[in-house]
Write a structure and sequence with these properties.
Layout: E1 4-8, H1 10-16, H2 26-35, E2 40-43, H3 56-67, E3 72-77, H4 81-90, E4 94-97, H5 113-128, E5 133-138, H6 144-152, E6 157-161, H7 163-166, H8 172-192, E7 195-199, H9 207-213, E8 219-222, H10 224-245
Parallel strand pairs: 1-2, 1-8, 2-3, 3-4, 4-5, 5-6, 6-7, 7-8
Helix pairs in contact: 2-3, 5-6, 6-8
């Protein structure tokens, strides 16, 4: 079964937030994405709300519940008390925990699962009471002991950080090396019983090699590249291009 596509709405929200105006509408473009065949929507509500705002979450939740009940809502973030309360109020189908400092412009590394195992275990247990699937952001070349510690947290999946792979768009040799790093980490996670997601700087051009190496990939979360494509092809057209790159 090819990986599912979750459209990250943060880049759309960032464009909207350049002006004190309600457009482009995060929910309207989320609707178009789901109508075009996307399997879910992803947001990363940062504390400063520079991308998706807290007020967007109930509207996205209502969009999915009312019009696309088969779709999933995925909320990403660092597990502060405020973030956990936001997740518990919104009840997404999936929560992706990332080790970002609140000041980071974007996610750029995975968890040290060994060092943070006990903290993550407690948070995973708390969030599972909401019924959500829990995914943990993971370095592309995580060592076996890191995967073992990730499994020990009780999480359901890891999300492979594919930023270094996405950065190799002009170097096919380095890209192939990065795909193999990702593949080995995915193999270890899959072998331990963890599901595998992936996200960051994925494009129509680099997705086929990734899904070929990781045929059991469950989901990709894509924002920047898909939003860039939407400027040229429209949101619906961009979603269909990415679904095609996934083999759907």
């Amino acid at each position: 079964m090819p990986a599912k596509l979750s459209v990250n709405l943060n880049a759309i929200a960032l464009l909207r937030n350049r002006r004190d105006l309600p457009w482009p509408s995060v929910t309207a473009l989320g609707r178009i994405a789901l109508e075009a065949g996307a399997h879910g929507l992803t947001v990363h509500p940062r504390p400063d709300q520079r991308h998706v705002r807290f007020a967007d979450l109930p509207e996205i939740r209502a969009l999915i519940d009312d019009s696309f009940p088969q779709a999933e809502f995925n909320i990403e973030g660092y597990p502060t008390g405020d973030f956990l309360a936001l997740v518990e109020a919104t009840e997404p189908e999936q929560v992706t925990l990332v080790p970002d400092d609140p000041e980071q412009p974007t996610s750029d590394h995975g968890w040290d699962f060994v060092a943070n195992r006990d903290m993550l275990k407690a948070i995973v247990a708390r969030l599972k009471k909401t019924g959500a699937r829990i995914s943990l952001f993971c370095d592309p070349d995580a060592a076996p002991e890191q995967i073992e510690a990730a499994k020990a947290t009780g999480a359901d999946r890891i999300e492979l950080y594919t930023g270094p792979y996405g950065g190799c768009y002009e170097d096919t040799k380095k890209a192939a090396e990065q795909v193999e790093f990702l593949g080995r980490t995915a193999d270890a996670a899959h072998g331990s019983g963890l599901g595998v997601n992936a996200g960051h700087d994925l494009t129509v051009d680099n997705l086929p090699a990734l899904v070929s190496r990781i045929p059991f990939l469950a989901e990709v979360s894509i924002g920047h590249g898909l939003t860039a494509d939407a400027l040229e092809y429209g949101m619906g057209g961009a979603v269909k291009r990415f679904l095609g790159a996934l083999g759907r």
